[in-house]
């Protein structure tokens, strides 16, 4: 409103001409009176909604009755946004998510409390569907962190652009099961709601989670995390989101880091030391551009094989040749028909033989680059030779006297010698 009034003021001022001082003074007085009269309105508009209501607004879901953004959900733009996401989630759940939940409950028993999801982008959608019982999720991607938008204090035009770009950013993951990096770069920058954080908010809200707190982070060289003031959120390389089920229960934590996890990138940051401070857990890899097939991603590959008791991945994750067969039990699900054409050189004959074994089980959903039902594969690798010392060793300390939760981090990078990454999840 103030923006429109300012434009009108500028237009009228120019139309009065240079010699109409009394008119300018009269209009200036009226403008000042308007600002004073509407000071309560502007203060209210500047007030930030709760984290939970902001997430629900972005997700096209009803906000609380007392929220100061309740009125914004009555606009035609938001209601169209809500209908689009409602329809999309209804189809997605029927076609895929409900089936994945059933499969996960049957085959991913005794899950760990920590999930390492490298090359994830903002994909809480599949992390939660496959690993709903994790209490700490650690994501890493190349997408910028972004920040929580104050939707009450931006123009209707900016909200319209932001909601449209949110849908555009999520379109491929909702229809294909993975993000397309080039499209993400376009939609996650510039006007609207830039960064990975708004998308994570949508996935949390659509999973019926309540966002309770957000901290913007910096990763120190010793692996400790430093909380940044919100005014410096634009320079944050990580974010910590605290959330819980709407019905109450355990508070959970999601970390998202925008960082280079190639070997050279990890040498320049304390990210690996932070990961080490979290102890053991499960690992998930999907649509990862086969980056861990290359020697330039050996450090993160070795970390996952060392710290994960179970790795769930499609064939774009860790190549079979890197697993010590005596240490792992493999359970193949679905069909292995080789990579999509852009990654054809990453065909694995060993994977083909594994998926021809009698213990292979079918899956009734699609996932990964080959997202059509009947063409997808998942491999569950479970560590069977972990020693008692490995299981009970204290988490690696990231530096002398370091505290990983110290008051505000950094996913993936493409080596110049590797194919361009088409999916950041």
Characterise the protein shown here.
- The chain is α/β, with parallel strands linked by helices.
- The protein folds into two domains: 1-46; 50-392, no CATH class.
- It has 14 helices and ten strands.
- The protein has helices at 2-16, 21-37, 39-46, 51-58, 76-107, 124-130, 156-175, 181-187, 197-206, 263-267, 271-276, 298-307, 349-354, 388-392; strands spanning 114-118, 136-141, 209-219, 225-228, 238-245, 248-258, 281-285, 308-313, 328-334, 377-383.
- It has a ten-stranded mixed beta sheet with strand order 4-3-5-6-2-1-7-8-10-9.
- Strand 5 and strand 6 form a beta hairpin.
- Helix 4 (51-58) crosses helix 9 (197-206).
- The longest helix has 32 residues, at 76-107.
- The chain is globular and about 60 Å long.
- Residues 1-45 and 391-425 have low confidence and may be disordered.
Key words describing this protein structure:
disordered N terminus; 425 residues; alpha/beta; 14 helices; disordered C terminus; 2 domains
Quick recap:
This protein has 425 residues and is of the alpha/beta class. It is 37% helix and 16% strand.
Distance N terminus to C terminus?
39 Å
Q: How many distinct domains?
A: 2
What percent strand?
15-25%
Q: Helical residue percent?
A: 25-40%
Strand order of the largest sheet: 4-3-5-6-2-1-7-8-10-9
Mean pLDDT: 81
List the helices and strands and how they pair.
Elements: H1 2-16, H2 21-37, H3 39-46, H4 51-58, H5 76-107, E1 114-118, H6 124-130, E2 136-141, H7 156-175, H8 181-187, H9 197-206, E3 209-219, E4 225-228, E5 238-245, E6 248-258, H10 263-267, H11 271-276, E7 281-285, H12 298-307, E8 308-313, E9 328-334, H13 349-354, E10 377-383, H14 388-392
Parallel strand pairs: 1-2, 1-7, 2-6, 7-8
Antiparallel strand pairs: 3-4, 3-5, 5-6, 8-10, 9-10
Helix pairs in contact: 4-9, 5-7, 7-8
């Amino acid at each position: 409103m103030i923006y429109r009034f300012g434009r009108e003021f500028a237009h009228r001022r120019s139309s009065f001409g240079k010699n109409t001082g009394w008119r300018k003074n009269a209009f200036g007085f009226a403008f000042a009176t308007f600002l004073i009269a509407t000071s309560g309105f502007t203060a209210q508009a500047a007030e930030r909604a709760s984290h939970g209501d902001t997430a629900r607004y972005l997700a096209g879901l009803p906000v609380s009755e007392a929220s100061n953004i309740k009125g914004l959900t009555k606009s035609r733009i938001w209601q169209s946004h809500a209908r689009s996401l409602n329809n999309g989630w209804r189809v997605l759940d029927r076609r895929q998510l409900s089936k994945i939940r059933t499969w996960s409950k049957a085959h991913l028993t005794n899950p760990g409390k920590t999930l390492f999801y490298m090359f994830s982008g903002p994909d809480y959608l599949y992390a939660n569907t496959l690993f709903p019982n994790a209490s700490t999720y650690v994501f890493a991607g190349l997408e910028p962190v972004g920040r929580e938008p104050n939707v009450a204090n931006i123009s209707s035009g900016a909200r319209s652009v932001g909601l449209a770009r949110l849908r555009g950013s999520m379109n491929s993951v909702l229809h294909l099961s993975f993000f397309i990096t080039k499209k993400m770069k376009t939609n996650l920058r510039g006007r609207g709601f830039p960064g990975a954080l708004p998308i994570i908010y949508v996935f949390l809200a659509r999973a019926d989670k309540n966002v309770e707190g957000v901290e913007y982070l910096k990763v120190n060289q010793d692996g400790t995390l430093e909380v940044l003031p919100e005014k410096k959120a634009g320079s944050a390389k990580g974010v910590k989101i605290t959330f819980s089920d709407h019905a109450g229960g355990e508070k959970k934590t999601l970390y998202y880091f925008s960082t280079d996890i190639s070997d050279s990138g990890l040498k320049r940051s304390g990210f690996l030391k932070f990961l080490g401070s979290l102890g053991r857990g499960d690992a998930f890899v999907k649509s990862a551009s086969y980056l861990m097939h290359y020697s330039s991603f050996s450090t993160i590959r070795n970390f996952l094989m060392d710290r994960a008791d179970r790795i769930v991945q499609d064939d774009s994750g860790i190549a079979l040749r890197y697993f010590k067969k005596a240490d792992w039990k493999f359970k193949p699900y679905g069909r292995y028909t080789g990579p999509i054409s852009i990654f054809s050189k990453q065909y694995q004959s060993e994977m083909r033989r594994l998926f021809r074994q009698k213990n292979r089980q079918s899956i009734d959903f699609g996932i990964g680059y080959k997202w059509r039902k009947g063409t997808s594969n998942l491999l569950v690798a479970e560590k069977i030779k972990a020693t008692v010392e490995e299981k009970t060793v204290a988490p690696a300390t990231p530096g002398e006297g370091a505290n990983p939760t110290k008051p505000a981090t950094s996913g993936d990078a493409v080596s110049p010698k590797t194919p361009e990454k088409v999916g950041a999840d």
